[in-house]
Design brief:
By secondary structure, the protein is an alpha/beta fold. 49% of the residues lie in helices and 21% in strands. The protein is built from eight helices and seven strands. A seven-stranded mixed β-sheet has the order 3-2-1-4-5-7-6, sandwiched between helices. It starts with a helix and ends with a strand. The structure holds S-adenosylmethionine. The site of S-adenosylmethionine (SAM) has 22 residues, from helix 1 and helix 3. S-adenosylmethionine binds next to helix 1 and helix 3.
Length: 236
């Protein structure tokens, strides 16, 4: 992925950051909360585990890890958009009394950590913004301990029938319109359907994870396939 593409994605998220949580909840009818809950449950992280939340945005996955583990799992959230991280700060403060979540500005292609230091890695709604997925999957592999787990949540497209047609109308027509009403950065809500359309079908992305070395790669479609959770393990 070229520097200008990365800069484009970072700037876009910086600009939409102030309305990001509000629009997420509204446009997904709060399904995003359930999707992240399912992602985090798939980690099956045990007390004392260390989780890297890549492309953490405003920190919702880290907060969910903390909630599900009652603070017994440590999270390091990284993102390259300073505005998204700035908004995550106050949100994690409550749980952070125990030092459960820390944040760092970093690019997923250049992770500033020693290899093999994490029990699990999450990425929610980040991978479709990354063109060179093979490289990022390799970076994640390096960061995981043997036996570690990668869980990725991404938007998909429901298969066949009226539900698909209704969803495509909502996603391609209504969503950009609502995005334009509530955000002064309407481009981001036109980019969203385009980026989802470019994301490979679930079986193809699962195969890509397998090619990167992950074993027992499986995926589960949520809410009729509007999102997909992918899970793969690094062998012991
Ligand atoms: C749609 S938001 C998802 C945020 C969060 N994970 C969530 O569940 O709401 C995508 C995030 O990915 C980040 N991102 C995209 N490419 C990245 C990269 N190469 N390195 C770090 N962060 C990246 C963006 O800055 C943005 O905050």
């Amino acid at each position: 992925m070229s520097r200008s593409e990365l800069d484009f994605v970072r700037d876009m998220f910086d600009r939409i950051a102030p309305r990001y949580d509000f629009l997420n909840r509204m446009l997904s009818l709060r399904q995003d909360v359930y999707w992240r809950r399912t992602l985090v449950a798939a980690l099956a992280a045990t007390p004392g585990a260390r989780v890297l939340d890549a492309a953490c945005g405003t920190g919702d996955v880290g907060l969910e890890v903390s909630r599900q583990s009652q603070g017994a799992v440590k999270v390091v959230g990284i993102d390259f958009a300073p505005e998204m991280l700035r908004l995550a700060g106050p949100k994690i403060q409550g749980v952070n009394a125990s030092g459960g979540i820390c944040l760092a500005a970093a690019d997923a292609f250049h992770l500033p950590f020693k290899p093999g230091g994490f029990d699990a890695i999450t990425m929610a709604f980040g991978i479709r913004n990354i063109q060179d997925k093979d490289t990022v999957l390799r970076r994640f592999w390096d960061q995981l301990k043997p036996g570690g787990r990668l869980a990725i949540l991404e938007l998909g497209t429901p298969g066949g029938g009226t539900a698909r047609q209704a969803y495509l109308f909502y996603f391609n027509r209504l969503l950009p319109f609502i995005g334009r009403l509530f955000s002064s950065h309407s481009f981001a809500y036109r980019y969203l359907p385009q980026s989802v359309a470019r994301f490979p079908a679930a079986d193809r992305f699962a195969a890509q994870m397998s090619r990167a070395g992950f074993r027992n790669v499986r995926y589960r479609k949520l809410t009729m396939g509007i999102t997909v959770v992918f899970v793969g393990d690094k062998p012991k």
